[in-house]
């Protein structure tokens, strides 16, 4: 397995480098950030399959490519630092799930509660922000009623997601959560540093987080688990 891991590490690091240097990993979008990213996908895969340190190295390559293309928007200390943590967080979260949740059902239940709270909070705050920023004040005549409606929708969605996750295999849950948190680490870390550096107003930063960060995290959650399962199955079959 050592030789296979070395080969797989080389493949993912090369893939990250190619996606970064050719800009395949960046999708131009009409937002102040300049581009949405696919670069987090190989970084998350590296962290989950090969461990947090290889994931950090792939994330470092992601960061260097971001500095190369977007230094006109922000300095390197905004663009670079959060990227290595994508692979570190993804690798550690997945390792935690696989090590503890299989043997201790209580930990899995606690994790589900935390996930449901995070989903509810995000949906509610995003709904309130969208209501205030994207709709005319003349349309929002009943703010309390709209807030209650948003809270109810957020609650129902979070409960539904919790039950769906509860029925799934722990491995798939771990992969999904690790992928989501790895991607969100990039969004929160980079936009947080941009806020500290006052690159954009806070309203713009929140908008970028909602418009780009959440779709990127959802994409990672959908794409990464089946790829990991397929690669692991291939490696097991090749033995």
Automatic annotation (TrEMBL):
One of its GO terms (molecular function) is transmembrane transporter activity. This is Membrane protein. InterPro entries: ECF_trnsprt_substrate-spec. Gene3D superfamilies: 1.10.1760.20. The keyword Acetylation does not apply. It comes from the Bacteria. The keyword S-adenosyl-L-methionine does not apply. It holds the Pfam family ECF_trnsprt. The chain crosses the membrane at residues 6-29, 41-70, 76-97, 109-131, 146-165, 172-196, 202-231. Keywords: Membrane, Transmembrane, Transmembrane helix.
């Amino acid at each position: 397995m050592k030789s296979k891991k070395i080969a797989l590490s080389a493949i993912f690091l090369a893939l990250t480098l190619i996606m970064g240097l050719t800009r395949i990993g960046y999708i131009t979008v009409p937002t102040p950030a300049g581009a949405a990213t696919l670069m987090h996908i190989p970084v998350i895969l590296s962290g989950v399959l090969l461990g947090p340190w290889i994931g950090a190295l792939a994330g470092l390559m992601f960061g260097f490519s971001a500095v190369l293309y977007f230094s006109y928007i922000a300095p390197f200390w905004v663009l670079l630092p959060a990227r290595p943590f994508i692979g570190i967080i993804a690798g550690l979260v997945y390792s935690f799930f696989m090590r503890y949740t299989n043997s201790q059902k209580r930990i899995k239940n606690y994790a589900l509660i935390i996930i449901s709270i995070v989903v509810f909070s995000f949906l509610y705050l995003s709904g309130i922000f969208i209501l205030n920023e994207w709709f005319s004040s003349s349309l929002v005549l009943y703010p309390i009623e709209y807030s209650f409606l948003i809270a109810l929708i957020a609650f129902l969605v979070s409960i539904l997601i919790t039950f769906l996750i509860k029925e799934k295999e722990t491995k798939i849950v771990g992969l999904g959560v690790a992928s989501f948190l790895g991607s969100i680490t990039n969004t929160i870390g980079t936009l947080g540093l941009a806020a500290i550096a006052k690159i954009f107003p806070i309203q713009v930063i929140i908008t970028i987080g909602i418009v780009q960060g959440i779709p990127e995290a959802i994409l990672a959650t959908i794409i990464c688990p089946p790829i990991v399962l397929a690669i692991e199955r291939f490696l097991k079959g090749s033995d």
